[in-house]
Specification:
Length: about 220
Amino acid sequence: MITRTLLLLISILFCFTSCTEATNNNRLQATSSPPQNLSEDTVGLAKATFAGGCFWCTEAYFERLQGVQAVVSGYAGGKSQNPTYQQVSAGSTDYAECVQVYYNPQQISYKELLEVFFATHDPTTLNRQGPDHGKQYRSVVFYRTPEEKKMTEQYITDLEQAGAYPNKIVTYVQPFKKFWPAEGYHQDYYKLNPKDPYVQAVAKPKVKKFESNFQNKLKPEYSN
């Protein structure tokens, strides 16, 4: 009985682990090398930038999609130069944790990326996703063209008219200005840190649900 109670308490504590806390716990073991994804050949690929909570989860979703060549975690939506995770996670900047997706539009469309984005986070919670709260975790679509802006706004309208969510969508639709890659230890975090408490309690269930819901869009290595 005592053992079962102890396990339950540990599970509850894991569920309240935040992205920030998990990173701080692993910081001493991490390196600050440049993101490996940036060395991949992305010439000729389209880019899309989304913010939807902790970038560890968001990165894991998009990198599983057919047609996506690379996904880089980073920061967008702020004005200061060279933001660091310490600054962003403290909420002392205007930046949001986000991902930059490099994709082949012949294999996957921008609208399909929007579909995945809105289906993998709660766009109705202001400055919060699960245990992560603060403006750095806000929901944002950073559009690059008037067509992307129009498409995003129309998609949001369609979701609201369909009653997809019980509450109003609060996702920001903002022009893309600058993307700053996050520190090296944030890249491929889900893949490289499978035993991390946050990954186990928060990210893994979300990713598994995503894989189940988007089987027809997954790369072969992620299909059942």
